[in-house]
Write a structure and sequence with these properties.
Bacteriophage T5 Orf172 DNA-binding domain-containing protein; SNIPE; alpha+beta
């Protein structure tokens, strides 16, 4: 900072010149460097918390002192300007011009200093906030509370709630309300030592609890919430046993918030698991549709070739004059044309297909059926695929019939037995707790005509297996 009455030389900006209150003197000296603030500490870490906080305090003190000095200098400049204006009436020609120039220069200097002080105030405020943040992080890390990656942070629906929960339990730690302990405990007859001992032990036990809570959250799996909650409950019991001497406890409100954080993790993992399962079902459905379309296209190609063959045969027979044989071939040609129309219809009408009702006595018991539909040319191909190596016995077919609105009939049956649906989450799992007889009654009550319907399952391999096991 420039000492009182020493200012930048208007003739040489590299020098300072003495102003005696009325005019410039011939006293000059070299421009002096201003002190610099202490360097800001490096990024905070758990083991450098105290030294970092001390460095921030030094910077805060530096800017506070600088602000006071700059303010005093501004007040001095303002006073000098007032004196200069009072002297205007006493100066003559050239002196008046010199004073006006000095006033203009001082005004510019005042504006510059005002901006500098405003900037210093802003820096000081920011650094005060950083010091507070450093202290806050240090206090949380003292009890092993770190901002680790939480699986629910990627969830659009759960991320906000997770943030709220974390803010709440961090506030409990800052307010020393995450634990409770006896304040009347004494150590070697000293109440002060007893209080220090109890406080340090509470901090140590809370650190152990927080470490276990973080591990439980990272290790939780979809569907494993009860196990993870029990794990954290056991930690609370262990803390209370180890801290019985000072009546140490993890406060219920803090424990409840950490359990909610754990629940949010499991809910997100469960949602991801369900979405993956649904995606697998959607891909399986698309593969089934692609197979049906490929079969229809292949059948259409085969029928077109057969039709062209019959046309050539008819033409050759007529050239030979064999009208009787040509008429027989024309009858076959009509059958082919009807088959082509049927294939074209099924390719164009995606609602047409085969509805099936199947069961698997050996794998699913007597009171469970699967109700679905397929657009495959041979619907039994689909039934056989369902009875692959994933089940021990093949499915038995109770009903398998073509319908122009197979999708509508399938949806009707699904609505009828909605309360008996086995999987309430994945609607593509078309299994129901009901019997073939109940499904038959539902079809008949909705006017669906059936040529064949088998109430009792054949279950040949299952029955033979039971007999072999009892032999």
């Amino acid at each position: 900072m420039m000492p009182a009455n020493w200012y930048l030389d208007p003739d040489d900006a590299s020098l300072q010149r003495w102003w005696d209150g009325e005019r410039w003197t011939q006293d000059r000296r070299a421009l002096q460097d201003e002190p610099r603030p202490p360097d800001a500490p490096a990024e905070f870490s758990f083991f450098s918390g105290k030294s970092a906080a001390a460095a921030w305090r030094q910077r805060a003190e530096f800017f506070t002192a600088r602000y006071g000095a700059e303010r005093a200098k501004l007040e001095q400049v303002v006073g000098e300007l007032v004196q200069a204006r009072g002297a205007l009436s006493r100066v003559k020609g050239m002196e008046l011009i010199e004073v006006e120039a000095e006033i203009a220069r001082r005004r510019g200097e005042l504006e510059s200093l005002t901006a500098e002080v405003a900037g210093a105030r802003s820096v000081l405020q920011r650094e005060r906030e950083q010091v507070l943040e450093v202290r806050s992080v240090a206090s949380l890390q003292d009890v092993s509370l770190f901002d680790f990656d939480h699986v629910a942070e990627g969830s659009a629906s759960l991320a906000n709630r997770l943030s709220e929960v974390r803010v709440k339990y961090k506030q409990l730690i800052k307010e020393s309300r995450a634990t409770s302990y006896s304040e009347s405990f004494t150590f070697n007859g000293s109440a002060a030592k007893g209080k220090t001992f109890a406080k340090n032990m509470a901090k140590t036990m809370l650190a152990a609890y927080n470490a276990e809570a973080e591990n439980a959250i990272k290790a939780v799996r979809a569907g494993g919430l009860d196990t993870a909650r029990a794990r954290l409950d056991r930690v609370v019991d262990r803390v209370e046993r180890n801290g019985a001497m000072i009546d140490l406890k993890i406060n219920a409100a803090y424990h409840r918030l950490r359990l909610e954080e754990l629940t949010l993790a499991e809910r997100h993992l469960h949602a991801v698991k369900v979405e993956k399962e649904l995606e697998r079902e959607r891909r399986a459905e698309l593969r089934e549709q692609a197979k049906a379309e490929a079969e229809l296209a292949k059948e259409k190609e085969r029928l077109d070739k057969e039709r062209n063959h019959y046309l050539n045969v008819i033409e050759a027979l007529r050239q030979r004059g064999d009208e009787a044989e040509a008429a027989k071939i024309e009858a076959k040609l009509a059958d082919v044309d009807r088959a082509i129309q049927d294939v074209d219809y099924r390719a164009a009408n995606i609602r047409a297909g085969y509805v099936y009702v199947i069961s698997n006595l050996g794998a699913m018991g007597e009171r469970m059926v699967k109700i679905g539909m397929t657009r495959r040319l041979d619907p039994m191909d689909r039934v056989k695929e369902l009875g692959d190596a994933s089940v021990p016995f093949p499915f038995d077919v109770h009903a398998l019939f073509f319908a122009e609105d197979a999708v509508g009939i399938e949806n009707m049956l699904h609505r009828t037995f909605a309360e008996q649906r086995v999987n309430r989450i994945n609607q593509r799992r078309e299994f129901f707790y009901t019997t073939p007889t109940d499904v038959l009654d539902a079809l008949q009550s909705h006017g669906v005509s059936l040529v064949e319907y088998a109430v009792e399952p054949e279950a040949e391999q299952y029955r033979l297996s039971i007999a072999a096991a009892g032999a």
